[in-house]
Amino acid sequence: MSVPTKPRKLVQLAPLGFDRVVDGTPVTSSALLFQFPVEILSHIVESLSFSDLAVLAQVDNDCRQLARSIQFVHTVFDFRRPSTCEFVEALEKEIAEGPVSPVYRRHRRIACCIRRIKLYAHPHVVQGLPVDSWVSRVASLCAEAFPNLYSIEWQTPNPQPMAHHELLVKLQASTAKHVKFDAVWEPLPILPLTTTITQVENTIPWNLETLDIMYSVLSEMTGGSSTVYDLFNPPTLAQRCKITHLDLRGCDGTIYEWFEGLGTFERLRSLRVNVNPASDAAAAIRFLENNTHLIALDVGRVGASLRNTLLPLLRSDFKDLVALRLVWDSDEHEPPAGSLEMIAGIEKLERLWISGPGRLLGQGYGYRTDAGFSVDHSLVLQSLLPFVRLRLRTLIFTGDTYTVPGPHHPLLAPQAPHSYYDMKRLPHGVAVEDYLTPEECKRACGSLTCFDFEESRREWRKLEVVAWERWHHARMREHAKAYFGGLERLEMAHVGMRPVHRDELLDSFVENGGFGCEKHGENQRDEDGVFVEEFWDKIVSSV
Fold first, then answer.
1. Scanning 36, 89, 97, 388, which has the fewest C-beta atoms within 10 Å of its C-beta?
2. What is the helix (H) or strand (E) element at residue 63, kind and residue range?
3. Is the dihedral of CA 424, 427, 428, 432 positive or negative?
């Protein structure tokens, strides 16, 4: 089970044109906004603040609906709040009144404005009804009331309500193209389910493009005579769906055996999986053997047993693979040279991300500095050169750590790799002043003559950290420069939590006072993995 530290956007949401939220009713407003073409009107309103939108909604009916198209584009159904139930009832009333109602014509519908919904289904009683009853009503709204619905994020501490065949068929009948199931466990009592389970014939073609399962949802769902397996079964999912991206990193190994039985997902282009424990490796490999047409692949927890079967498979059968990310397991202290050579032999590989076994955050992008693996960049370059000299465009290392050369006091022990980012100690023979500006050197001299010893020590330590960051960045730039020299098409290298671009390599030294710091500041290490996460998502989307 994984609990993300930072919510990840399921899809990028485009603005909705005003003509799609008015139900065909002509615009009668005299407001100047409606003199702009409808193609850019939503982009203008999108830049307004919440208070401005509230004022706009008071002008007239057309302006109210225009404001709603932004206010309700992202709607949260959180059943911990009583107002959510009132909102559900209001949406149901819109359906009941229908288009002939004068109220409908005067006020138009909120439901047309809803594009993305996020539902928190906590297992407790809400206004006298079990929460799964309210969940079922929201699912009915998805199928019947939201003509512009684009994505659904289903979050619950109890995955069982998602098991109902009827509920999932309602989601299938919606216009949503992106669905995310995220079960975040909480120590709350699980009440008996009351939703009636019915057998529904699956004849509806599903427009689904992205399925994101963040928890062992499938293995936990046992909702009576019908489960999620009955809905996601051949040919419903594998043949009818338009899934191009599949994220299974939060699921246990049983899901691979199940997906293996679905055969080939012909439209699937991007896959993210975790293989843990190692006993799941065989089922995961068989699943991958059915989908060798992937363009982007992200595999977590790559231990020795999986590596020995996965890498030969990727090299021999994945002829279209462009982007590959591998997270090494904790039993690996450095990337083996043989594995690097096997990776380099993948025919069309252009984007490579190798992550160490550090303590991962979120879905595995961020990493902690108290763990990782040592990287010998000269060995990596030597392994890659014979194969990818003309192809590799992006090379990313995360969780990589280093030793500090030279003798040190044994109590400090900065040569231990796992303390590299914590200790921030310069190597023997490198003076702090070598990496400080003249103004900072004056501060350093002042701190040494300060009568307040504790204050003097704190100020000196701050300057030591500044100097270490600059020294570390210069060191990582040298590694990046070696990669750029050997890999002719390489555009970006991410080493030591530092992204280095080829076109910035020559500029930044002069522009930042000769210290090799990046344009956006001297301490730009990607400590939480936000940069590399967003960068990789863009890569996967582009390929």
1. 89
2. helix 61-71
3. negative
Secondary structure class of 193 (helix, strand, coil): coil
Q: Which helix (H) or strand (E) holds 383?
A: helix 377-388
DSSP3 helix / strand / coil % (the chain, rounded to 5): 40, 15, 45
Beta bridge partners of 501: 492
Q: Where are the domains of the chain?
A: 11-71, 73-243, 400-542
d(CA 541, CA 543): 6
Q: How far apart are CA 261 and CA 381, in angstroms?
A: 40
Nearest residue to 193 (alpha-carbon basis) of 126, 120, 133: 133
DSSP symbols for 83-146: HHHHHHHHHHHHHHH-TT-HHHHHH--SGGG--EEEEE--SSEETTEEHHHHHHHHHHHHHHT-
Assessment of whether the complete model's pTM goes beyond 0.90:
no
Handedness of CA 256, 262, 263, 269 (dihedral sign): negative
- Which DSSP symbol is given to 457? H
Q: CB neighbours of 392 closer than 8 A, spacing ≥ 6?
A: 349, 350, 351, 352, 384, 487, 489, 490
Query: How does strand 245-248 pair with strand 151-156?
Result: unpaired
Q: How far is CA 49 from CA 53, 61, 261, in A?
A: 6, 19, 50
Q: Which parts of the chain sit beneath pLDDT 70?
A: 1-15, 98-107, 122-132, 156-168, 182-207, 211-242, 250-255, 258, 260-262, 276-279, 332, 358-372, 388-390, 406-418, 444, 446-453, 506-524
Residue located via tokens 């990310």: 325
Q: Determine the pLDDT at residue 297.
A: 93
Q: Supply 378's token pair.
A: 């000269």
State which H helix or E strand residue 408 sits in: none
Instruction: Of 483, 443, 486, give the one whose Cα is nearest residue 467.
Output: 443
d(CA 522, CA 513): 11
The answer to whether 525 and 498 are in contact (CB under 8 A) is: yes
Cα-Cα end-to-end distance for the chain? 29
pLDDT in tens, 312-351: 999 999 999 999 999 887 776 777 778 888 888 888 999 9
What crossing angle do the helices spanning 304-317 and 337-344 adopt, rounded to 10°? 20
C-alpha span between 335 and 340 (Å, rounded)? 7
Three-state DSSP at 510 gives helix
Between CA 512 and CA 325 the distance in angstroms is 33
Which of 481, 470, 483 is CA-nearest to residue 524? 470
Condensed to tens digits (0 to 9), the pLDDT of residues 384-424 reads 887 766 688 999 999 888 887 766 555 555 445 567 888 88
Report the relative pairing of strands 400-401 and 373-374 from DSSP bridges.
parallel
Residue carrying structure tokens 């010998």: 376
The beta strands (E) that lie in 306-372 are given as: 323-328, 351-355, 360-361, 366-367
Rg, C-alpha atoms of the chain: 28
Q: How many helices (H) does the chain have, and how many strands (E)?
A: 19, 19
